[in-house]
Design a protein that fits this description.
The complex is a heterodimer of chains A (545) and B (277).
Chain A lengths: L5 E9 L8 E10 L4 E5 L6 H9 L8 E9 L2 E2 L5 H10 L1 E4 L3 H4 L6 H12 L4 H14 L5 H5 L8 H12 L6 E5 L7 H18 L2 E6 L2 H7 L2 E6 L2 E7 H6 L4 H9 L15 E14 L11 E14 L3 E5 L6 H8 L7 E6 L2 E2 L5 H8 L2 E4 L13 H11 L4 H14 L16 H13 L5 E5 L7 H18 L2 E6 L2 H7 L2 E6 L2 E7 H6 L4 H9 L8 H4 L3
Helix pairs in contact in A: 4-5, 5-7, 7-8, 8-20, 11-17, 14-15, 14-16, 15-16, 16-17
Chain B lengths: L1 H8 L2 H23 L31 H37 L1 H16 L2 H12 L3 H28 L2 H8 L4 H9 L4 H24 L10 H8 L7 H29 L1 H4 L3
Classes of the chains: A alpha/beta (545), B mainly alpha (277).
Chain lengths: 545, 277
């Protein structure tokens, strides 16, 4: 390895007094060489983002600051230089791309002007030259019709296009280092694959050193040269990508890699004859944009579900996969009747639920229950956990005493301490809250559990636990489950059957193993091809069990 | 509760406001003890300056005791301020809750109605209402409530709009909870903080409106009020300043104290602002 471009030595980032721990980053050292991609991997709270921000001098001062250590860039210690010098370095020598390009771009300025600003602040160039360079940059990141993109506002572009524009802006001055903080986390999997390819391409073309922050080992497998694993603010393991991914040394790294769901589907189970839930020709169109007293013209209609047919047998898990906007959540919401479908049939044990009114529906409510995505929004912050779980039973007429008893036993089933009963949701972590959410859904002894992205807000190790719990519960209570996810790895691990959705249509459906082995629809193939790290098989999974 | 008090205490001026408010409450509560007679009764020589002829704060042109008026007026002001605010918050919360929760045409109708009330300047509207209904303590309360609920309705609607799509509300829907129960039992407790804050500030506004009405002679003729005292003394401002000045100071202090307390409540109840200190 040549002399490092960026050398972080014994970095300590102090948190304000009274925080959970004194240092967000403690004694972290890492080196980034020229023309190299260094991935910093860790779960939430591992200090990976703050490390990146410390390099950029973007820590939320004065509460969070670098206390000890050095960040050496080309012979200069960035923790010591003046603000003015730091501003000079930022943008021209080190630049950054963020997770959510919509908030990182200024919404009231065109893309062209924002790129132009970068040039104006850092180099002397004529307006014409600047425009030409900007056009060239946009073309380099493979944006269609750069001239038109120049005049567009951020909201007029798609998420992937915005991230491309961000990358163009970050590379405008040919920086030596590019810091990417989870740049693909907010994107769909196919877009993510394109952006990762682009980052790699740009890095090779410009000889840039890339510091890539991510939580996703699949992404690491796709692009990393070097890997640093962080946990609780400390670097626990560092080394070349191949070594860390295939022969991890540290227990934490091993555990993390072991909890990455494998892409090879689990063995198929015999399918029950009896259908619990059938969806027939479900259609849903969202209408909006009407103004004053509904007199105005309808301006926006979004087709969310077109002739959707699904078939859920007893005891199985049916996965609905697709990218954002594919209509998978709409289907889930129609099934639990949070949204009213326009037409079609929702047959539960042969009974059509769709035409039922609110009062008629109440008797069936308990049979289909839902687990929500965001564990922080799905529990009422003002209610105690026990009452959250018991609420549904009380409404169905169970006595307070029985409901309490059952809530306690459910807490035990989902792996929580009985003491959780009298506490408020904010006292629990994301994973624990999701367990509470599951307990609530189970309280009414449902036949069908609809889980809408139940693990996508969780760290990978917690994710594995929740998936295990869901599987266990399905087995134990003889549940049938509809599992909505965008993550094919997760789908491979929990789903017996899969339905792939795109633009509101089911493009392919069948047994998970069959779809993974031989996808029929071109879109399914794209999706499978875009899964990050698809060629990497985590060591545990690769060894025969 | 203790944690709440600790957060509240960090705002020094709010504690000061609470202190002033407590003193005013004590004055109002003990008015009948120290001034058992009707504050309208003639108590001695007219136009006595403060401290003379046994008048702590002087007497007015008819020989009424200014201090007695202030003590009894405190009762009136606080009573009207509180009751009118409660009524306004009640109406506003219901309108806002229904508009925010249901949206669509219900929202349209309720919000257009709210806007109609908001287009009329509130004080002029209050004068009009009292003039139509004949001045009495009830009509004043009704008038103040009618002009102040739209603000609450807008606030509550906004909160409900934001909360009704939260997943915990949907979770309640999937277990078949009734809408009314979701609104009252699940969403409303989550927007109590802003309602308490706006309510406390509305008490101050209500006291100002009441004083203004009484000043214009639209107060309840049988009840002593600060606004009435100022109104009665305004022609004597140059010869007997104390008749106007002391009730004026009472209004100033009360409104200031309530505003400070309201701000303190806001700081203590609003977690996003907590880091500001």
């Amino acid at each position: 390895m040549t002399a490092p471009l960026l050398d972080i030595r014994n970095l300590h980032v102090a948190l304000p007094e009274g925080s959970q721990r004194p240092y967000a980053v403690e004694d972290a050292s890492m080196r980034l060489g020229e023309n190299e991609i260094l991935c910093v991997v860790g779960e939430s709270g591992s200090g990976k983002s703050l490390t990146a921000r410390a390099v950029m001098g973007l820590l939320p001062a004065p509460h969070v600051r670098v206390e000890k250590g050095a960040i050496e860039f080309a012979g200069e210690d960035l923790t010591q230089v003046s603000q003015a010098r730091l501003r000079d370095i930022r943008g021209s020598d080190i630049s950054m791309i963020f997770q959510e390009p919509m908030t990182a771009l200024n919404p009231v300025m065109t893309i062209g002007r924002q790129i132009d600003e970068v040039f104006r602040f850092h180099v002397r160039m004529s307006g014409r030259e600047r425009r030409e360079r900007a056009l060239q940059l946009l073309a380099d990141v493979h944006l269609p019709d750069p001239a038109q993109i120049m005049g567009a506002y951020p909201h007029e572009l798609s998420g992937g296009q915005r991230q491309r524009a961000m990358i163009a802006m970050a590379l405008a001055l040919d920086p030596k280092i590019l810091i990417a903080d989870e740049p693909t986390t907010a994107l769909d999997v196919t877009t993510q694959a394109q952006i990762l390819k682009l980052v790699k391409e740009m890095q090779a073309a410009h000889n840039t050193g890339v510091l890539f922050i991510t939580h996703d080992f699949g992404v690491v497998a796709d692009i990393a040269d070097q890997v640093v694993v962080m946990q609780g603010g400390r670097v626990v393991e560092a080394g070349p990508a191949g070594q860390i991914l295939n022969h991890p040394e540290h227990d934490y790294t091993k555990a993390l890699i072991a909890s990455v769901p494998s892409l090879s589907p689990r063995p198929a189970r015999p399918r029950a004859e009896e259908a619990v839930l059938r969806i027939e020709d479900l259609n849903k169109v969202y209408r909006g944009g009407r103004s004053f007293f509904g007199l105005g013209k309808e301006t926006r209609t979004v087709t969310a579900a077109v002739d959707v047919n699904l078939d859920l047998r007893r005891g199985e898990t049916l996965g609905i996969v697709g990218e954002s906007g594919s209509g998978k959540s709409t289907v889930a919401r129609c099934i639990v009747r949070l949204t009213d479908a326009d037409s079609g049939r929702i047959l539960l044990d042969g009974e059509d639920l769709r035409p039922l009114g609110r009062s008629a529906l109440r008797a069936y409510r308990s049979k289909i229950q839902m687990v929500f995505q965001d564990p922080f929004a799905s529990l009422n912050p003002r209610r105690r956990v026990g009452s959250i779980i018991a609420q549904g039973m009380r409404l169905q007429g169970t006595s307070a005493e029985t409901a309490r008893e059952k809530a306690r036993s459910l807490l035990e089933i989902v792996g929580l301490d009985e003491r959780a009963f009298n506490r408020f949701p904010h006292e629990f972590s994301g994973g624990q809250r999701q367990r509470i959410g599951i307990a609530r859904a189970l309280a009414l002894d449902p036949e069908v559990l609809v889980a809408d992205e139940p693990v996508s807000a969780l760290d990978v190790s917690i994710q594995a636990q929740i998936l295990l719990l869901l599987d266990e519960i399905r087995e134990r209570m003889n549940l049938s489950m509809v599992f909505i996810t965008h993550d094919l790895r997760v789908a491979a691990q929990v789903c017996d059957q899969l339905a792939v959705m795109r633009h509101g249509r089911v493009v392919e459906a069948g047994p998970t193993a069959a779809i993974f082995a031989d996808p029929q629809d071109p879109y399914t193939r794209d999706l499978l091809g875009a899964v990050p790290g698809k060629d990497w098989h985590p060591p545990q999974a690769a060894e025969p069990a | 509760m203790l944690a709440f008090w600790n957060r509240f205490r960090r705002n020094r001026s709010a504690v000061l406001g609470l202190g002033i408010l407590t003193v005013i409450l004590i004055i109002a509560a003990t008015a009948n003890l120290f001034y058992p007679e009707d504050p309208f009764s003639l108590a001695g020589r007219a136009m006595s300056p403060p401290g003379e002829n046994g008048f702590l704060l002087g007497s007015d042109s008819l020989g009424r005791d200014v201090a007695a008026g202030i003590a009894h007026g405190a009762k009136t002001s606080l009573l009207i301020g509180l009751v009118a605010t409660l009524v306004a918050v009640f109406i506003g919360a219901i309108m806002g809750a229904f508009a925010g929760y249901y949206g669509g045409w219900i929202d349209d109708i309720l919000m257009r109605t709210t806007e109609m009330f908001q287009t009329i300047p509130s004080f002029v509207f209050a004068i009009l209402l009292v003039a139509i209904m004949k001045p009495s303590i009830e009509s004043i309360i009704v008038a103040i409530a009618v002009v102040s609920w739209p603000g609450v309705a807008r606030l509550v609607r906004g909160e409900f709009l934001a909360l009704r799509n939260r997943e915990f509300v949907q979770a309640c829907q999937t277990v078949g909870m009734s809408d009314l129960r979701i609104m009252l039992g699940e969403i409303l407790p989550n927007c109590l903080s802003p309602i308490i804050v706006i309510g406390s500030l509305m008490v101050a506004t209500a006291i100002l409106i009441e004083s203004g009405l009484a000043f214009l002679g639209l107060g309840d003729p049988n009840i002593m009020s600060w606004g009435f005292q100022i109104g009665a003394g305004r022609t004597l401002l140059r010869s007997a300043w104390w008749v106007c000045a002391f009730p004026g100071i009472a209004i100033l202090l009360t409104v200031l104290a309530i505003n400070l307390v309201g701000e303190g409540l806001n700081d203590a109840l609003n977690p996003r602002l907590r880091e500001r200190q």
